[in-house]
Amino acid sequence: MSTTSEVVALLERGVREMKFFPAEAAGGTAYLKSLSGPLPQARFCPTGGIGPASAPDYLALPNVACVGGSWMLPQDVVTARDWGRAETLAREAAALSAGVTCR
């Protein structure tokens, strides 16, 4: 979903958690902040253009449950079967939410 109309239509169908894609191109954290007031029941998993530098800003929003992105497990790591690097990247991604209270 990437428009307010889509969010409202999903809420009317009982869907409360939804993917927000493409997050950065569709307004990023500012857009999600603008939805949190009038639509507090909606929760999002933003993906698209998010990286380790911007993920904490998303995770700090009250209407964001998680973030996603290929930066967490790039194709070259999988192709190389570099499971040590995969573990390091997973730990780094998990650490981005440190201090963020689960909602």
UniProtKB/TrEMBL annotation:
Q: Which Pfam families match?
A: Aldolase
> Subunit composition?
Homotrimer.
Enumerate the Gene3D superfamilies for this protein. Aldolase class I
Per the UniProt entry, what species is this protein from, by scientific name?
Streptomyces azureus
Q: Does the keyword Nucleus apply?
A: no
Gene Ontology molecular function terms on file: lyase activity
UniProt xrefs under SUPFAM superfamilies: Aldolase
Q: Which CDD domains match?
A: KDPG_aldolase (cd00452)
Give the protein's recorded name.
Answer: KHG/KDPG aldolase
Which PROSITE patterns does the UniProt record give?
A: ALDOLASE_KDPG_KHG_2
Q: Which domain of life is it from?
A: Bacteria
List keywords of the entry alphabetically.
Carbohydrate metabolism, Lyase
Pathway linked to the protein: Carbohydrate acid metabolism
What family classification does the UniProt entry report for this protein?
Belongs to the KHG/KDPG aldolase family.
Instruction: Decide whether keyword Cell wall biogenesis/degradation is in the record.
Output: no
